[in-house]
Amino acid sequence: MHYPTGIKVTKNNNINYANRGMTLEADLNNTNHYYLINDIAVVYKKPTPITIHKVNYISRTNAVIEDARFQIPSTTDYNGIYKGKYIDFEAKETTKNIFPLANIHEHQIQHLRNVHRHGAIAFLIVRFTKQNKTFLLEATKLFDFIENNKRKSIPLNYFEQNGYLIKDTYNPSVDYIKIIDILLKEN
What we know:
- Helix content is 29%, strand content 32%.
- The chain is built from 5 helices and 10 strands.
- A hairpin with a 4-residue loop joins strand 7 and strand 8 (133-138).
């Protein structure tokens, strides 16, 4: 495309999918930092357990990991505490109007079942990027869908009918604690 000022804009066909889901993750990390510094909740992103196999020591103070492997499958993305209640959740993004169940692993679903059974507030946060909508879906609603449907994906309208829309705000950007307050009042 040629603009009147002579600037050329070309189409880039090299799409990099390496950081899919990083927008939601960054928003949640900022939200959790806001909760921490304002003494609202303590929620952290869990590190992925890895075993380092090869390190290149560029200098005494600078090293680069060149080969690492996952030790064990990770559970969920985030956990913490709010008003004395343990919270545990997985965060996912999808570019479609469905949430593919392949995006959440069986061991993560089992982990959500386990922590929920022991009294945790367990849930998914799913962002539908094309629709610019983010939902909190209680783990029990996820379990219900899996047990009562043969589908391999959860449609957007299931989230609209059974989940909670997280409205975009300035700070924190993904204020899911407002929805946890609703859940605590209901139980």
